[in-house]
Amino acid sequence: MSELNLLVADDHPLLRAAVVHSLRQGLPQVNVREVASAEALEQALDQHPDVDLVLLDLTMPGAHGFSALLHVRGAHPDIPVVILSSNDHPRVIRRAQQFGAAGFIPKSVPPETIGEAVAAVLDGGLWFPAMAAERSDADALLASRLAQLTPQQFRVLLCLADGLLNKQIAYTLGLAENTVKVHVTAILKKLECHSRTQAAVLVKALEPEGDAGLV
After folding, report:
1. 137-204, what's its fold?
2. How far, in Å, CA of 4 to CA of 195, rounded?
3. Which CATH superfamily is domain 4-122 in?
4. What's the pTM?
5. Which residues carry this modification: 4-aspartylphosphate (predicted)?
6. How confident is the model at residue 215, as a pLDDT?
7. How far is CA 40 from CA 8, 36, 90, 157, in A?
8. Distance of alpha carbon 86 from its chain centroid, rounded?
9. Contact 14, 6 (CB under 8 A)
């Protein structure tokens, strides 16, 4: 078997260490990289295009719930993402699946289960616990709208959600202010929002227990 390149994204060092140990115990010839924030995740994927799978926590710094999942799926659609979370409510699991995750591993599972789940996804399958929650049309609509955004527009949207002004967004992302204005206009159009506040509310809906509230 050729070497597998996995990326574990979680801001808790002890949890990362436990996950890495489980992966190395369960999968032969595995190379594991670790990051602790949404920004570091994005940089790692840009620098290492050979990543085969991402294990992603939902509560990292810089992430708005499922925003990191959606960003990875939009910018790197060929890389499967498996959510690793302590919040295993059926609705959270269902939302992860609707937003493009290939699997969902509760942090409460036995260590050997992590390797089994990752192996199943790497084989082209899906790995989810049994779910009682039903599919949400609002989440499906939200996901389809967000999928229209380019990776740069998604970054701008997250800055909007943090309440940054165009000048601040330009400084944060290294863009010209006029470029930010163009992105904001395109974002509002694609998301069918009439204001920056309305767009920020959509990002809030990406929180694990958020309600998209779309019509």
Report:
1. Arc Repressor Mutant, subunit A (1.10.10)
2. 44
3. Response regulator (3.40.50.2300)
4. 0.81
5. 57
6. 34
7. 11, 7, 29, 18
8. 15
9. no
